[in-house]
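Deviations from the work plan: none for this task. Representative record:
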Amino acid sequence: MSRTPLHPAREQIELPMVLDCLRDPIRLAIVYQLAQQERVSSELCCGDFSGLGGKSNLAYHFAKLRECGLMQTRVAGTNRFMRLRREDLDARFPGLLDAVISSAARDAGRLQLLSDCEVVDAG
Amino acid sequence: MSRTPLHPAREQIELPMVLDCLRDPIRLAIVYQLAQQERVSSELCCGDFSGLGGKSNLAYHFAKLRECGLMQTRVAGTNRFMRLRREDLDARFPGLLDAVISSAARDAGRLQLLSDCEVVDAG
DNA sequence: TGTAATGTTCAATAGTTCTTGAACCAATTG
DNA sequence: CAATTGGTTCAAGAACTATTGAACATTACA
C-alpha cells in the first residue's frame, strides 16, 4: 500500500463526476454513512462498509469517490480512515450534498443505504 | 410516432435514476436549458436542442430524461414540447434540482451547457 | 522472524451506455 | 395523394462500468 492516495484540489471537483459517483447505489450508501458519521465528527474505515460488498469491490468504489472529490482518505497504520469533503463540496456546489443526503434519507427504505445487519424492517 | 409517451408517477421517481440522468453532459445541458426556459414559463421542443447532438442521439437522451421522471413531453401536432417536472421533483427531492442547476450555472464555462451558436467566449 | 489484519491492485468477464445511420411513423402542407 | 417536417425506433459497434477472485503490499504484533 502506497502512502496517502491522491485527491483532486477543490477547484478540480467537477459536477458531472460528482453526480456520476452518487448515482451508484453502493457509493450512495457509502456517502450516506459518511454523512451520518459527520454528526459525531469521526471517521470510518473500509471495514465499516463490509455490509455493502466485497473488499475489492469496495476498494474500487472508494477510489472513485476519492477521485471525484467526494471523500478524503487518511492512512493510519493498517487502516484507512475516510470522511466526506464537506467544506470543498459545499464551496463548489452549495446545497447539493445536503439535498442528495436528505433525499436519500427520505428514501432510505427503497435504497439499500444500510448494511444488512443495520437494516430494521419497521413492521 | 405513438401518442404521448409514458411518464413515471411522482412516487416512482427514484434518486439514483435522477442522478444517473443528470450526470451525462448532454442531459445536464438539456435540463439546464429547460430550467432557463422555466423563467418564461414556456416549453421547448426537440429541435431547440439540435446544438447538443444529432436527432437520434437526442431522442435517446430525451427518453432517458422522461423515463427517470425529470421531464415531461407533450405531443402537439408534429412537435413534442418538453418541460421540467419541477413540482414532482421538488416534492420528491427538495432542493436537489435547484442545487444541481445553480451548480451547473456556476460552472457554465466548464460544462458544455449551451449549443455552439449560443456560446459566448467572455474574453 | 513469522503470521495475521487491513486494504489495494490486477486480470478477466459480464453487462451497460453512448453514438451513429438507416428506416420508420405521424401530422402538416401543397 | 405526394412531399416535407419533426421526431422516434432499431441495429450495431465502441467504450465504459461493475464485480469477482487471486495476488500483493504494508503495518502490527507475538
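The domain at 14-108 of chain B is CATH 1.10.10.10 (Arc Repressor Mutant, subunit A).
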